[in-house]
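ok so I'm stuck.
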Amino acid sequence: MESKKRIYIGLLIVSLTAVTILIPLILFLLRQNTQFSKVMLIIIATILGGLFLLLGLGILAIIIMIVRSKTIPSLDNITKLANELLFPLTLVIGKVLGIKSEKIRSSYIAVNNYLVKSKHIILNGERVMILLPHCLQNNECPHKITMDINNCKQCGKCCVSDLVKLSQKYSAIIKVATGGTLARKLIKECRPSGVIAVACERDLSMGIQDSGALPVFGVLNCRPNGPCFNTSVDIDKVEQALIMICKGG
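replied:
not stuck anymore, here's the structure
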């Protein structure tokens, strides 16, 4: 398992350990409250214990999928639950351990991408959306592409023209979003079966969390001028993601 993935997997395990400590503490505090009967405590303990087992199974399934490079369809929902519930906790624990949130989010995206790849999905290009952040566009460009990316005049001052050509090559949908709200709106309108999203660690991790069952492959942008200003992206990495989703490569 690559070291980049190990960061998030390790924090998932630490988070689960933290949950095992919290459960007895919660039950102890509830027991001190006379309003809770023994039956109620047993019910709560059963629910918490079941949740712990589900999270543990979800983490184990993630590790197995990464090692085998093959998904386990029957456990997809459980792995999703484990990520949704424990990801925020990994950020908190990572902060306590002195690990930068950007590094944790990057590891989370790497794990997510590997899980998407392990599904070995093959989609027609028309069912794939390339979702871009507006900061890829040169800040001096007068042509607004958030409403219609075809407004791009392909002057070559930014990477947008290359991405448009790439989308045409694979017949993929390509859209530009100014934030999470618009991104969700575009996905709802276009109803793709798979998304290749370009963004920073924070926006990508949040977008993946919001995606539900929709497979989202994340490609980190390059920020030579700092965040959200004249950013770029490795075109080869976007094409590799397209090949993986459209051709099973």
